[in-house]
Amino acid sequence: RESSVRMADDQLGAALDLMRRLPPKHLKANLSSTVALVPDLVEDLLSSVDQPLEIMKCPDTSKEFLLCDYNRDGDSYRSPWTSSYTPPLDDGVQPSPPLRQLEVAANETFDKYREQYYEGGVSSCYFWDNEGGFACCIVIKKTSPKKAHLIDEDADPRSATVSEGSWDSIHVAEVSVREAEQRAKYKLTTTVILSLDTQCELEGHSSDLSGNLTRAMERDKSFSSADATTHIANLGEMVEEMEGRMLDSIKEVYFGKTRDVISRARTGVDDNKAKQQSLMAEMAARRR
C-alpha cells in the first residue's frame, strides 16, 4: 500500500516537473498525452497544472466566459453570468446566495478592469465558500490574432513579419475573514502564461517565445461587513499590483534576456576586421 502511494507521488512529481519544462503553448496536448500514460493522476494533474484559458459562450446570455479548473464540475463548466452549467448539470457545485451576489459584482468590476487595462479580451470571476471565509479565482485572457506588419509597397510580400500572441493571467485568492475585527487576510497566487510567435517567410525564420511565471503575496486589510463589495476593492488593488509586478518581471526575464542574446550573437563580421574598422574610425576622428 505504502509503495503504491509512494509510486503515485513520484509519478505526479515527475509529471509536474515535465509540465514546467515543456512549452506552455503546447501544454494542453502534452497534458493530454501525460494523462493517457497515467490516467489515475487525471484529477491531480488537472487541479495542479495551470493551462492556457479557453473561451466558451454562455447559451443563455450569449456572453463569453473563461474555462478553468475552478468553474469545472466533471465535464461541465459553470457560467459566471447565470451560474448554470454547460452541459447542464443538476447537482453542480454552487456558491452560497450571499457569495453569488459578490461573484456577480466582481464580474462586473473586473470586466471594466479588463477593458481599461487590456482593451479587449475576456475576463471571468468564480467564487466558492471556504472554511473561515471564501475563495475566488479571477481569470483574464487577451489574444492578438495573427497579423502581418506593414512593409513598403514595392517590397516582397513574403518579407512581412507575421506575429500572434496570447496572455493568460490566473489569480487565485483565499480570504480569511475576522468578523469581530472587521479585517481579512488575503492570500493571492498569480500565474501568467505568455506566448508570442513571429514568422518571416522570405527570410525563413521564426521565433516562439513562451513561458509562465507564478508569484504570491499576502495582505491584511480592513473591510466593511455592511458592504461586502469592499472585498472586491481589496482584491482589485492586489490584482492590479501583482499584474504590474509580473509584467515588469516578464519584460526583464524574457525580453531583456532575448535582447541580450541577440546583441551577443555573431554578426557575420570577422572580429579582427571589426577591430580594424573601429581603429580606422578612431584615427579618422582624431585627424579632424
Structure characterization notes:
- This protein has six helices and ten strands, in the order αααβββββαβββββαα.
- The protein has helices spanning 2-21, 27-37, 42-48, 97-118, 230-264, 271-287; strands spanning 54-57, 64-67, 72-73, 76-78, 85-86, 122-130, 133-148, 161-178, 183-200, 205-222.
- The N and C termini lie far apart (86 Å).
- β9 and β10 (205-222) form a beta hairpin.
- The strands form three sheets. It has a five-stranded antiparallel beta sheet with strand order 6-7-8-9-10. Strands 3-4-5 form a three-stranded antiparallel beta sheet, with no helix packed on it. Strands 1-2 form a two-stranded antiparallel ribbon.
- 39% of the residues lie in helices and 33% in strands.
- The model has no long low-confidence stretch (mean pLDDT 85).
- The chain is an alpha+beta fold and 288 residues long.
Q: What is the topological layout?
A:
Elements: H1 2-21, H2 27-37, H3 42-48, E1 54-57, E2 64-67, E3 72-73, E4 76-78, E5 85-86, H4 97-118, E6 122-130, E7 133-148, E8 161-178, E9 183-200, E10 205-222, H5 230-264, H6 271-287
Antiparallel strand pairs: 1-2, 3-4, 4-5, 6-7, 7-8, 8-9, 9-10
